[in-house]
Amino acid sequence: MNTREMFAKAVAGGYAIPAFNFNNMEQLQAIVQAAAETKSPVILQVSKGARNYANSTLLRYMAEGAVAYAKELGWEHPQICLHLDHGDSFELCKDCVDMGFSSVMIDASSLPYEENIALTKKVVEYAHQFDVTVEAELGVLAGVEDEVSAAESHYTKPEEVIDFATRTGCDSLAISIGTSHGAYKFTPEQCTRDPKTGRLIPPPLAFDVLHEIEKKLPGFPIVLHGSSSVPQEYVDMCNKYGGNLPNAVGIPEEQLREAAKSAVCKINIDSDSRLAMTAAIRKHMAENPSHFDPRQYLKPAREEMKKMYIHKIVNVLGSDGKAE
Ligand SMILES: [Zn+2]
Fold first, then answer.
1. Domains (ranges, CATH) in the chain?
2. What pTM, to 2 d.p., does this model score?
3. Where is pLDDT greater, at 186 or 156?
């Protein structure tokens, strides 16, 4: 299904839909099991990188398989969307629409404002012919999207959102209010330190900007990218078993919980799944040096990811029970 109904219900209900990226079977199994068990609508996200890594045709049929698998798990009417994450060209978005994706993102946020509008509009006009919903982006996130760290000037400008949404016809809007891509969302210099634990405390999200945007576009679906919380237990587990992830830091879950209650109706989580998987594999490898069957270490990795997805759905996004 596309995101239209999912988002309308999420905005009205004060919760957010999880958007989880997948690149492989174990991640997909964990996502589908978590969504089916909690009866949560879910967005399966495929990035350009995932298409390059796993093959775009294979990913598309894996997503189709995910719907059948969800039904087999006893979820009678699965609410699953297949979404392109960070489409960077009309051609890529068109390819995904033609392949059967139910939603695409065109991220032209690095282009000048008018060019962002023109490209987004072109994708919307094509996608809507096939009832495929389109996410656009306004403002620049730190991390993968940009080498420059998030500063005030990179936040989405609330005064632009009405014009942008009206002229592009996009169905949802990814905004920049201080979230960031990756497992190193902030430099230690941008953070303060907890005097007791020595852990980094990231700067708070710009809720004032979010509220301004909500006032301009009442009820319009807002999306947050780069919203992993980088659980310290996984960072510690990685580091304990031979990893080296110094100063990895994410967005505190309390802030995401607060955002989910607002017009934010889609929250993207990718790094937390990578961390859960790697932490579980490192632990298993260290404790079982004789194992060489990938199923032996991928099984606990899958279980750890599933636990993490369920936690996000129930305790952060509040989307459990919304797709009975
Ligand atoms: Zn993103």
1. 4-317 (3.20.20.70)
2. 0.95
3. 156
